[in-house]
Amino acid sequence: MAHFAKIGTGNIVEKVEVVSNDIATTEQAGVDFLNNLYKSRDVWKQTSYNGNIRKNFAGKGYTYDQTRDAFIPPKPFNSWVLNETTCLWEAPVVYPNDGQDYIWNETIQNWELV
Length: 114
Description:
This protein is mostly beta strands. The protein folds into two domains: about 1-75, no CATH class; about 75-114, no CATH class. Helix content is about 10%, strand content about 35%. It contains one helix and nine strands; from the N terminus they run ββαβββββββ. It has one helix at about 25-40; strands spanning about 1-5, 15-20, 45, 65, 70, 80-85, 90, 100-105, 110-114. A three-stranded antiparallel β-sheet has the order 2-1-3, with helices on one face. The chain has a two-stranded antiparallel sheet with strand order 4-5. A hairpin with a 4-residue loop joins β8 and β9 (about 110-114). The chain starts with a strand and ends with a strand. About 20% of the residues are buried.
């Protein structure tokens, strides 16, 4: 199955639809199918679970970045920075690797033990 993200205002993903591989033999074929189905001229971009297409699997609320040709998830915290290689947000402090569970505390900008 092929997955396509509908891109709305501000390049924000509005939804993701599934199209049979028999129909979506190319990205354009999938886009044409969806626009015919919805009788629209929407912007659709193909996405994939394994990250082979546009870095990350698109989800509602993600941003499509044309320059990077990538789907970027919403920024979880103001202090986090975008990893240019993965197009994922990363904390400014590395997650502890001690087998315990932590949550991010934006106030102190560090991980706190759960």
